[in-house]
Amino acid sequence: MNKSFKPDVNAETVDGGAHVARPHDSAIKHVTGKAIYIDDMAEPAGTLHAYLGLSTRAHARITSMDLARVRAAPGVKLVLTGGDVPGINDISPAGLNDEPVLAEGEVKFYGQPVFCVVAETRHLARKAAQLAQIEYEDLPYATDVVAAIEAGHDHVCTPLTLKRGDVDAGLARAPNRLKGEMRVGGQDHFYLEGHISMAIPGEDDEVTVWASTQHPSEIQHMVGHALGVPSHSVNVQVRRMGGGFGGKETQGNQFAALAAIAAKKLNVPVKIRPDRDDDMSITGKRHDFHIDYDVGYDDDGRILAFDGTFAARCGFSADLSGPVTDRALFHADNCYYYEDVRLASRPMMTNTVSNTAFRGFGGPQGLIGAERVIEEIAYKLGRDPLDIRKINFYGGEGRNLTPYHQTVEDNIIGRIVEELEESSDYQARRKAIVAFNENSPVIRKGIALTPVKFGISFTATWYNQAGALVHVYRDGSLHLNHGGTEMGQGLNTKVAQALAEEFQVDFAMIKITATNTGKVPNTSATAASSGTDLNAMAAVNAARQIKERLVDFASEKYSVPKETIVFEPNRVRVGNQVFSFAEFIDQAYMARVQLSAAGFYKTPKIHWDRATGKGRPFYYYAYGAAVSEVSVDTLTGEYQVDRADILHDVGKSLNPAIDKGQVEGAFIQGMGWLTTEELWWDDKGMLRTHAPSTYKIPLASDRPRIFNVKLADWSENREMTIRRSKAVGEPPFMLPVSVLEAISMAVASIGDYRTCPCLDAPATPERVLMAVERLKAGA
Amino acid sequence: MSSAIRSSIRFLLNDQTVELSGFAPDLTVLDWLRIERRLTGTKEGCAEGDCGACTVLVGRMIDGMLTYESVNACIRFVGSLDATHVVTIEYLNRPDGELAPVQQAMVDLHGSQCGFCTPGIVASLQALWLSDPEPGVKDVERALQGNLCRCTGYEPIVRAALAASKIEPDEDNDRLVRAREETARKLIELADGARVEIDHPEGKTFIPASADDLAEIYEANPKATLVAGSTDVGLWVTKGMRAIAPVIFVGHLTDLQTIEETEEGLKIGAGVSYSMARGAILSQVPQLAELWDRLGGEQVRNMGTIGGNIANGSPIGDTPPPLIALGATLTLRKGSARRTLPLEDFFIAYGKQDRAGGEFVESVTVPAVPEDAHFAVYKISKRRDEDISALCAAFLIELDSDSHVATARIAFGGMAGTPKRATHVEECLIGARWGWTAVQAAQAELENDYSPLTDWRASADYRMRVAQNLLTRFFLETSGAPARLDTSEPLMMEAGE
Ligand SMILES: Cc1cc2nc3c(=O)[nH]c(=O)nc-3n(C[C@@H](O)[C@@H](O)[C@H](O)COP(=O)(O)OP(=O)(O)OC[C@H]3O[C@@H](n4cnc5c(N)ncnc54)[C@H](O)[C@@H]3O)c2cc1C
Ligand code: FES
Ligand code: FES
Asked: Where would one find coiled-coil regions in this protein (chain B) (predicted)?
């Protein structure tokens, strides 16, 4: 707030309240380069820089590690190995003790950190890290899911099975049956700001850590664990991240722990920031999946029995693979009712970096299995996959129970799809495309409409809680703090809008402050799309506490009934009198009213029993659908997205501009996952696509040439969420499944749409061409 | 030979004049800006020229005109800045301190989410705004080929660029326009024609006064690394952590930046960047247009040179295949001695070129496409733009009066250890009637010319299959049946908005 800023006390509505499309709170700072990320902070005097030394084996015993040359390198102050961790050499978020800060004795993937060097500059530290002489004795390894299964690798955590009905009987009974498999690749987050931490030592056992993290409380916990000090000694702060997408939910632990250890040992601030190539080698990604399905269906395409196994490349440790593979199963139904169903996960240990959260958290990989089955049935029956989708939608008598025994109560997919089909002119375009393909030998087109239903809430029920801290100062300005973290999704903006609306003050009166474990404790990760749902509710709860005190005060002071005290835009009506908000607050202060409150929220209604596979893990569902049209070059396998139309449900949007931005961004990111983003390991187990030169995320020119994105403005959350809005971060990520299926249709045209091309993802030009060739050969 | 030797470089940084000496030969502009000048608005996203988070503008005098170009500060060396104007995000707002039109449009249209890519995007869009009064969507996309954004999906950014273009740059809304004459005068003054030599414990930096001076310095220091646009050498430093000293900068040498029409063809100086060459080369060989706009991103094209692309000797460089097919020749110079050889002979083996110590590439001469010849270039990559080729193919054939192949020059990149001609294919085609039978026979011959590798960009099978299919495409196109993706339109567009 500018000092000269004067809120309009005669306004009819507040500026920047709920449901308005206002810019991101940091937008001006973004475009002028003034937004401060951790690497931009002024470094305290004496700050040193840490860099990591990495393994060059996929799986090996370390037979000797000679770090003498590293220690002797110019500017080097300290070299740390696993044995130097003062507390416990472990940062496993699953609490399984399977993830060392620095590997000791044995390395389990190519690129695993084995030592850390601290020097005067980052450049010197990085150069010194090259000088280690490490000898290894190779051990057997498998980097791929299928290879890991064949090699008999363990699961990294307990698998889950969801069951309803009798799937074997259902399969046996079904008039038609199909079996198949699908490979779905992983994905690097490619947040534009890589991982970074800066630790500043304090007195006694205290340390302050600035980290680029979605989960400050976990950083606090892990730093404490590694230092061997209680959580109260560790303060973690984050103002903003340059992107997270799940990649900063647990993956910052290592960097924060090392910065803190080095800072405490040397008693100087220590910063650590890996180079992009190292960041991509050291940190986990979206899980690749291998999906096996065995499905029974009737002649109309109705799915009667669904038996699916979802095996995931988890990497060397559990990390979040348990809940990720669980969520894959929770979404293996997408919008479809399966009469008899069995879904099983196989979280496979592989000799690769430990995979982690990524927008959708396994959900997209589950959902894509469902969509593949629909597609296969359609080709078998010679029908448009959209017809098969509709016939299988949840809805109708006895057709609302999910494989995890939650009843779908808020189903709006029928209306979404119907409206989109109409507005995108789907039917006419599909006909035109089929006609086009008949006369186009080289370029082929395809179109597909795919739906999304996504469950909102952490499946770890206890995560569904949040806190906020709100102060009102004497001048009427507000300080807002909450447990969520800002990574670009506009969380702070939306929470501040909710607060502005609640207090009826202009947005500009609210100062958004860095997330800080000392202000709001025991926070959950900003993840599972839940950031606004949880934190805005907590902030509003804090506001209501303060307002209640204010109302009590005013009612007593002015002897008016409480109902006559109304918070109006930038003013408060007390009976017949009206005070500006600032005046009113100052009066309250003088009367010794507490003008600060800690708010709290926990999501109601949810429960989940993993052992029985039953419960209501999700508070509600978010829905959406997309139609994509593509052109494919059948000589090279190259393609382009000609057009995409989206209709997406965010309930009653808190900020339509930000929500639309999430939908657009998620679509392009999901499209990248399914098209050009390919993780490629060589036969030594080294990830070779570990930089933007080799790992290709979408560019502006990859956008659909026509991109019509609409929010379903009629939708309102039937649950009591913050102003009836719905979560938006993850659900739209799955809309571009329509791109994959449209490419598939273009390829299928080669075989006159009789064979499902069964395209694996990512559908790189190479995979597309190979599918074209397969169909040409009539296979 | 130079009369004067300076021991510092001088350039403009935003509104200041900077004089620097004693810096390391491999000090990057980004590290200098962020660490030494604390201008932290410019970000590091990859340190390899691919993400654009580090984009800044560099103004220099080109043909007497002050021209600002977007460049990647992460792979550009400070030693290349002599007599330029470096402009960072901190200086892109209006002279009155308010948001510039590009910035305002980015705010109004929600062009930033996490904001980390944003300063680089604003810099790229500012360069576009200053240079193109009426950009279309394609122009915006081209300007953004070197900028990654992981959050927005780009839609609002493209909208912002188009919205900003409605406002013309003028003295009130843009500092660079306002100071244009003064800046030009200062840059001309700074370019005093002196050789610069900088000493540093890691090694020496030379900034020659002229091409002749370069010849002299290089002959005396044959082990030195020549740096032109540093779009290859930059990565040796930021990724390979290679020591490159002593370094001789050549990117500023205007006498290596000439483009001349000669009898043999277009003679392009080794120091001509892709951007500078674009107009001349596309008017001589319009078939190169698509390739040219898909080489790197805008920042890389503004820095990278054709000379560097050739001298680097990479088997996946994009200019050699078409230039070989066109019969280009290369002129090398050592001291005052020059020699000219067919470009294809320059590439001896993987990592080995026909270039002696102290010898540099002076120019490449590109003959025009013979009248009536068929010529086409195809670049195949995982992602359409700003991606390294999985393979790159160039076909040139001339037919005689009854449709027999009279000459054939066919070259591929990405199919062998060097850019290489498909001699078996050529032999098979010459004399044959240009038709399906010949094409099919030629496709089989590709297997005798190449045994490509499998790597992360493509498998050997894919490379071979596509190479064969591209011959099909070339044949289709010569017979008037063009079918390229970029001409494919959405069906029934009117149903859109
Ligand atoms: C993000 C990115 C994308 C890219 N995309 C592509 C692409 O799509 N296609 C492609 O082909 N390339 C691509 N490149 C590489 C391409 O930009 C370089 O090959 C470029 O052309 C090299 O020119 P330069 O002036 O930057 O050379 P430098 O990096 O300065 O030098 C390259 C080599 O040439 C030598 N050299 C330079 N000038 C001379 C000279 N006059 N005489 C003798 N030796 C000399 C140097 O010593 C060095 O060995 C890309 C690079 C980046 C960073
Ligand atoms: S930092 Fe990515 S291009 Fe320079
Ligand atoms: S706004 Fe986050 S990368 Fe562009």
From this structure: none
Nearest CA to ligand 2 atom 3: B49
The domain boundary residue, chosen from B192, B214, B249: B192
Report the CATH number that the domain containing residue B98 is assigned in CATH.
Answer: 3.10.20.30
Across chain A, mean pLDDT equals: 97
CB contact under 8 A, A638 and B380: yes
Instruction: Looking at the structure, tell me whether residues B143 and B287 fall in a common domain.
Output: no
Does residue B147 sit at the A interface (CB-CB below 8 Å)? Answer: yes
- pTM assigned to the model: 0.98
Check residue A779 and give its pLDDT.
Answer: 57
Handedness of CA B284, B288, B293, B296 (dihedral sign): negative
Please indicate whether residue A730 is annotated as part of the active site: yes
Interface A:B, Cβ pairs < 8 A: 290
Interface predicted TM-score (ipTM): 0.97
Closest in B107, B151, B466 to A769, CB measured: B466
B171 and B268 assigned to the same domain:
no
pLDDT of residue B497 exceeding 50, the answer is no
**A702: contact with B, CB 8 A cutoff:** yes
CB of B460 less than 8 A from some CB of A: no
Query: Alpha-carbon distance A562 to A541, whole Å?
Result: 19
Query: Which residues touch A415 (CB under 8 Å, ≥6 apart)?
Result: A712
User: A32 and B93 in contact by Cβ < 8 A?
Assistant: yes
The verdict on residue B20 lying in a domain is: yes
Q: What is the DSSP string of A187-224?
A: B----SS---EEEEE-STT-EEEEE--S-HHHHHHHHH
Quote the radius of gyration of chain B (alpha carbons, Å).
23
- The residue of chain B nearest to residue A701, with distances taken between CA atoms, is B141
Substitution target in B488, B489, B492, B497 with the highest count of A β-carbons within 10 Å is B488
| Domain annotation covers residue B407 | yes
Atom 4 of ligand 3, residue of closest alpha carbon: B149
Q: For chain B, first and last CA: distance in Å? A: 66
Go through the domains of chain A in sequence order and give each one's CATH number.
27-35+465-602 (3.30.365.10), 142-403 (3.30.365.10), 407-454+611-779 (3.30.365.10)
Ligand 1 centroid vs B422 CA: distance in angstroms? 24
Q: Which helix (H) or strand (E) holds A597?
A: strand A596-602
Percent of chain B with pLDDT over 70: 98
Q: Give CA–CA dist B482/B364, Å, rounded.
A: 31
Distance from the Cα of B136 to chain A's closest Cα (Å) equals 12
Q: What percent of chain A has pLDDT over 90?
A: 98
Please give the torsion angle defined by the CA atoms of residues B250, B255, B261 and B265, in that order, rounded to the nearest 10 degrees: -40
d(CA B404, CA A612): 76
The domain spanning residue B419 has which CATH number? 3.30.390.50
Question: Based on the domain organization, do B44 and B134 belong to the same domain?
Answer: yes
Span from the CA of A631 to the centroid of ligand 1 (angstroms): 33
Measured between CA atoms, the residue of chain B closest to residue A433 is B491
**CA dihedral sign of residues B106, B108, B114, B115:** positive
Residues of the domain holding B95: 8-192
Which residues of chain A lie closer than 8 angstroms to B41, CB-CB?
Answer: 32-34
In a domain, B222, yes or no: no
- pLDDT-derived band at B261 (thresholds 50, 70, 90) equals very high
Domain count, chain B: 2
pLDDT in tens, A256-303: 999 999 999 999 999 999 999 999 999 999 999 999 999 999 999 999
What pLDDT score does A5 carry? 74
Q: Decide if pLDDT at B1 tops 50.
A: no
Contact B148 A30 (CB under 8 A): no
Please pick, among A99, A501, A730, A741, the residue that the annotation labels catalytic.
Answer: A730
Among residues 24-63 of chain B, which lie with CB inside 8 Å of chain A?
31, 34, 38, 40-51, 53
